[in-house]
Design goal:
15 helices, 2 domains, globular, alpha/beta, Aspartate Aminotransferase, domain 1, 38% helix, four-stranded mixed sheet
């Protein structure tokens, strides 16, 4: 078979994309000048652009190509199900075989009594479902005033009208959009690297928990439906919380009758070496887990909101006029669910969870070496969910001026050298396929290392950085 890049006219395809496709999070000034990097093929951890250039995909698509590209059996599962039954209505009392099988499989894999599943088509829709489910649950229990949602700064929970409002990532808020605010509250991000000066991590955790308690007093526990949290904040900077933080927040929520929603759209299905991270990594038993991305490894759009027996028993109490009036045309789509089942089968059969523990720990250790570089203030994350934060001054942790566009400068050099990482403000983020090998991990780290050093040299040469870095004063926080 000839390469996919030979099937397209690169210039013509670029122009069509440029003229007609409104991309998520388009920055119009740069897009109009530069257009898109057009990808036409993928295999394993690599992708190929329309000009035939091959890259190691350090992004894993968008945190999602867990089993890697080019899986023939995934395509065969799609084709087989599409021929058998390409679509099925799942409203009210209709269903289909793959949806029923996948719901049962997710109930088996999820921690505790999370035995019930509402399917959707994305993480955004799954989080939207989780919030509506929380509202419905409290109303059915006789507490209809519980409508408020507690979230965190720098969180990301989707881009629907509701979920973009619940999230509060620095780069997502623009005056050109409107956001819901009357029932949504945001606490401080559990961001240890940028905790207040002079505060230990334990003191920082105490501060965050007390802030949550104060917010509950302010709003009133009887008015709060749920606390929503990513175990590790993803697009908000791969922020790994300080030890004990999530469990203590869960305990406070539980004491106050507040549902705990774990947004595991990124962390589920192996990225940290477990099916789900909440319980196995952070010792938290959520009432609701939200998942998508790795559920099908991005091969087809599918989301799942997985919730407990307690929630189900409350919402399903007898009542002739009670309807859970929420869902989507494509809820439980048979082709998507068939692919989800095949994806889980591959992860199980190939032992990818254990593979991630080995290669992920190696990758994490190697990336930590970058903290010796002048521009690198912090390397953080866990296993195959990692991030590098750049600073102008390690002592003050001050960022470089925005106009330098540091993460994009570095990612552009990486791209030239056959590596894709995701630039986000002052960060470069990595979430490669779970199939990543140690050799590929070395290429990723070494390429990024070289790009950071070259950009540092260019900034010094251009007078944007002093020739000698100021030494860090140890003994502070």
């Amino acid at each position: 078979m000839k390469p996919a890049s030979n099937r397209f006219n690169a210039k013509d395809l670029w122009q069509k994309d440029h003229d007609h496709f409104l991309h998520p999070w388009t920055h119009f000034d740069s897009f109009k000048k530069e257009g898109s990097l057009l990808i036409v093929e993928g295999e394993g951890a690599h992708i190929t652009d329309v000009n035939g250039k091959r890259y190691l995909d350090g992004l894993g698509g968008m945190w999602c190509v867990n089993v890697g590209y080019g899986r023939k059996e995934m395509a065969e599962a799609m084709a087989e199900q599409a021929l058998l039954l390409p679509y099925a209505n799942a409203f009210v009392d209709m269903s289909n075989a793959p949806a029923a099988e996948l719901a049962a499989k997710l109930a088996q894999l999820a921690p505790g009594s999370l035995n019930h599943v509402a399917f959707s088509t994305s993480g955004s829709c799954s989080n939207d479902t989780a919030v509506r489910l929380a509202h419905f649950y409290h109303a059915r229990r006789g507490e209809p005033s519980r409508k408020h949602i507690i979230s965190r700064h720098n969180s990301y929970h989707g881009s629907s009208y509701l979920t973009i409002s619940i999230g509060n990532r620095d780069g997502d808020r623009t005056p050109n959009f409107h956001y819901l605010s009357d029932f949504i509250h945001h606490l401080s991000a559990p961001y240890p690297y940028r905790r207040p000066d002079g505060m230990t991590e334990d003191q920082f955790t105490d501060f965050l928990v007390e802030e949550f308690k104060a917010k509950i007093l302010e709003v009133g526990a009887k008015n709060i439906a749920a606390f929503i949290a990513e175990p590790i904040q993803g697009s908000g900077g791969v922020v790994t919380p300080p030890p004990g933080y999530l469990k203590r927040m869960w305990e406070v929520a539980k004491e106050n009758g507040i549902l705990f929603i774990a947004d595991e759209v990124v962390t589920a299905f192996g990225r940290l070496g477990h099916w789900f991270a909440s319980y196995d990594v952070f010792d938290v038993q959520p009432d609701i887990i939200v998942s998508a991305k790795g559920l099908t490894s991005g091969y087809l759009p599918l989301g799942a909101t997985i919730f407990s027996d307690e929630v189900y028993e409350s919402i399903s109490q007898p009542g002739p006029d009670v309807w859970f009036a929420h869902g989507f045309t494509y809820s439980g789509h048979p082709v998507c669910c068939a692919v989800g089942l095949k994806n889980i089968e591959i992860i199980e059969r190939e032992g990818l969870l254990d593979h991630v523990k080995v290669v992920g720990d190696y990758f994490e250790k190697r990336l930590k070496e970058l903290e010796s570089l002048r521009l690198v203030g912090n390397v953080r994350g866990k296993r195959l969910m990692m991030c590098v934060e750049y600073v102008a001054d390690k002592a003050t942790k001050a960022h470089l001026p925005d106009e330098i566009n540091i993460s994009k400068r570095i990612s552009n050099l990486c791209e030239e050298r056959g590596l894709l990482v995701r630039p986000l403000g002052h960060l470069d983020v990595m979430s490669p396929p779970l199939t990543l090998s140690k050799v590929e991990a070395d290429f990723l780290v070494d390429t990024l290392h070289g790009a950071i050093e070259e950009v540092t040299h260019d900034l010094v040469k251009g007078g944007m950085l002093p020739a000698v870095a100021r030494p860090i004063q140890h003994g502070g926080n």
